[in-house]
Amino acid sequence: MSVIESIANNIGKKTRCILNFDDDTEEVVIYGAINLIQISISFLLTAVIGFILGVLYESLVFTIIVSILKKYSGGAHASSPGRCLFIGSTISVSFSLLITKILYRQSIWDITVIGVLCISISIYTIIIKAPVDSENKPITSNKMRQRLKRNSIVTILIYSGLMVIVLFIFKMSSNIMYIKIFECIGLGTLWQSSTLTKPTIKFLNKVDSLLPF
């Protein structure tokens, strides 16, 4: 058991003692605590790398979008917290560089179509696959599975609303940063939903196995 899992288990047990809830709720608390701790560390690491490479804001938006959805949908898991943080930060910064250097220069029509496709594919994938747990922390409760799937779908719907708002603000202000935010939300959602599929899981497992630490 990793340090993060140990901390999360302690949080779950102490919260259960205070609030006196059942086993299923404790499992939800532990599951959420693990994700919250990893999100916090990943956020800091991505901020540092993003700042160095000049994509601080894009990297942070992308990381937040992916992390919130992953909290409910699950997805591919690295073999250690260190590898998870490295892979997650690398993915966030890489997508941010792609958006900053290439994608934001597309026409508003192309950008809108890409966003709609990202959300459509993501919702379909989430409905079919979510949630995807890990061998070390399997989801044994059917009630919890249903709750996580429902929360995953709601999260994507909220992202869709945010994308509409951001696009509207861009049309009013012509500030290119809103286009980058729009693309970060769309591609972040698409990437996280893809981590529920076998091809992406297989790819990330291969990357994981090649890391020297």
Radius of gyration: 18 Å
Please give the count of helices. 8
Q: Percent helix among the residues? A: over 70%
For the sheet with most strands, the description reads: none
Structural class, by secondary structure, is: mainly alpha
Mean pLDDT, nearest integer? 87
The secondary-structure element order is HHHHHHHH
Count of the domains: 1
- Unreliably modeled segments: none
Question: Could you give the distance between the termini?
Answer: 17 Å
Total DSSP E strands:
0
**Beta-strand content:** under 5%
Which word captures the global form?
globular
How are the elements arranged and paired?
Blueprint: H1 3-19, H2 23-53, H3 56-73, H4 81-101, H5 108-129, H6 142-173, H7 176-194, H8 198-210
Helix pairs in contact: 1-2, 2-3, 2-4, 3-4, 3-6, 3-7, 4-7, 5-6, 5-7, 6-7
